[in-house]
Amino acid sequence: TGKAVAWGIHLLALAYDVERIVLGGGVSHAGEPFLAPVRRELDRYRTASPLAAEILRPDLVELLPPGADAGAWGAVTVARETLAGRTAGGGAGTRREVGHA
């Protein structure tokens, strides 16, 4: 599972030049036992490629804080963007961020 999650993170980071990837929900509540294999695989990518070493910064990935509801925050973000689009002329090109303020 750690390899699959790391591969997804790798693809997201390379394709979209994201600032941060926050993992949450379900099994991520296990904390470090969930994240450790992901970090190991990301380290392997960094070692294998100078580009990956630049894109996959060590602080790129974090876990959603315990007790946070990723689904609810996603719904809030979508609602906020929808409302902003109605009042500000579309909201295209804005940065999406989900999580605690």
- The coarse silhouette is flat
Q: Please tally the helical runs, counting DSSP H or I stretches of 4 or more residues.
A: 4
Number of strands: 2
Strand content: 5-15%
Average pLDDT score: 83
User: Which oligomeric state applies?
Assistant: single chain
Spatially, the strands of the biggest sheet line up as: 1-2
- The computed structural class is mainly alpha
Biggest β-sheet description: 2 strands, parallel
Quick summary of this structure?
The chain contains four helices and two strands, in the order αβααβα. The chain has 101 residues and is mostly helical. It has a two-stranded parallel sheet.
Question: Features of this protein?
Answer:
101 residues, two-stranded parallel ribbon, 2 strands, 6% strand
Describe the structure.
The protein has 101 residues and is mainly alpha-helical. The longest helix is centred in the C-terminal third of the chain and has 19 residues. The chain is flat and about 45 Å long.
SSE arrangement:
Elements: H1 2-16, E1 21-23, H2 32-48, H3 50-55, E2 61-63, H4 70-88
Parallel strand pairs: 1-2
Helix pairs in contact: 1-2
